[in-house]
Amino acid sequence: MIDSIDANLAAVEAADAAAANGADAQGAMRQPIRPAVTKAAELARDAENRARDRQHVKGKFTARERLDLLLDSGTFEEIGRFRGGDINKGVAGSAVITGFGEVWGRKVAVYAQDFSVRGGSLGVAEGRKICHLMDQALALRVPIIALIDSGGARIQEGVAALTEYGNIFRKTCEASGFVPQLSLILGPCAGGAVYCPALTDLIIMTRENSNMFVTGPDVIKASTGESISMDDLGGGIVHNVKSGVAHYLGADEADAIDYARTVLAYLPANSGQTAPRYAYMATRADRDIAERLGTVVPGNERQPYDVLDVIRCLVDYGEFVQVHELFAQSAVVGFACMDGQPVGIVANQPNVNAGALDVDSSEKVARFVRLCDAFNLPIITLVDTPGYKPGAEQEHAGIIRRGAKVIYAYANAQVPLVTVIMRKAYGGAYIVMGSKAIGADLNYAWPTSQIAVLGAAGAVNIIHRKDLQKAKDAGRDVEAVRAKYIAEYEETTVNANLSMEIGQVDAMIDPEQTREVLVDSLKTLASKRRVSRTGKHHGNQPL
């Protein structure tokens, strides 16, 4: 990194000074410093100084400063420092920095686009550097992290630049599901360039300076007459809240990079490994928090609560790293540890739309389940949902097609799957949220949970429609009659007893037991292995 460049240059200057003073050669440096090395070091230092001048005034770090924040101190090994440059003509290199480093002591491959060089645009030299790095990352089976800050394809190089994007797309697809891929959008990312991060596992953006769009504001203005700012078109807030393209919104670059480091702590280096385990010693305070779970969820099925309070009572130290926190908030997904083992957690959020599944939350859940399955993270599903969100808007938005993605994700997952039904699980949503029928290994229910095709009130209105009409015609209290039928339905049908009797729920557990049961279940399933049931190439997932 730039520190090593400065160190080399300092060594050169020290040797020159020693020679000028007639010092013993052994007291200075044994190996003579050649002029070409001196020139390259000076060129590299001047390039970083120019980058600081250009980036800092915009409130942005340089590419090398970003690498300093991302990687463990002193671990960066740069590849092809001057590739694409011309040392004799004073060109330090291309508009991308590539190399390897460590995060939490584990090797990763990184590339950082340098906006101070030709606006970070991608040409043939940059494309080949990135593809070479990705080839090495695949050979070494290590994660790939992209720090993106680019004006897009280099127009001067025409179709040759576009071809390099095609090469990167293909290699990104090759790496998908094999090694974790993270993209940090720390500046502009426009045109075809947006599909590089779109193909990766997680996209991280910042509140300011971060933009992604296929067609920029100027082109939109010229073609449609619509005036829109870059932030309103494709800023960090837009893609985290509305489109769901991004998975985390950083307050600034340092926060975004810290999130990337945090996520990597939960993921293995590749699909052939398990995630690293961490030492964990349960304390009395942890046990007290777990026991408090019985008071978190209200008994009234219509009363909302924050499922994050439930999750924090279950996981180690109450630490939960959300993914897609601002998007489709009727579902919650993220990483945590259970007894030191990283897991993925999927939960309905009763605080938002009663926890109902809609088109966006369905895709959010499906995508996260696929991510966990790709990288061997057990999935814990916490269920409290009234079903799919009804209405013409949802139907027209493709709730059938997009809701089917959740089914496909769970039905194909081969990591340990443990489900807890906390309060209610109705209709199709009960099936798709990690039910036994769809492939879950162990399913549990709390004593007050309700499992049925419909909630009691809805079912009574259908089943006893004629009885209610007769009561009304006879002048009886219809609400009292309805309440009587609801009570009977809840006692005989809605509770979890039937599910246990047919083997769809393995046990009824008290809320206070939930953490202990989950930890024991993960130990039981630790030896679960993948199996290939057919000889097909791949399934045809609803997309």
Automatic annotation (TrEMBL):
Name this protein carries in UniProt: Propionyl-CoA carboxylase beta chain
Keyword match Ligase: yes
Organism field: Bifidobacterium animalis subsp. lactis (strain AD011)
Residues in CoA carboxyltransferase C-terminal domain copies: 284-543
Keywords: Ligase
InterPro entries reported in the protein's UniProt record: AccD/PCCB (IPR051047), AcCoA_carboxyl_beta (IPR034733), ClpP/crotonase-like_dom_sf (IPR029045), COA_CT_C (IPR011763), COA_CT_N (IPR011762)
Domain CoA carboxyltransferase N-terminal: 30-279
One GO molecular-function entry: propionyl-CoA carboxylase activity
Entry's EC annotation: 6.4.1.3
A Pfam family it matches: Carboxyl_trans
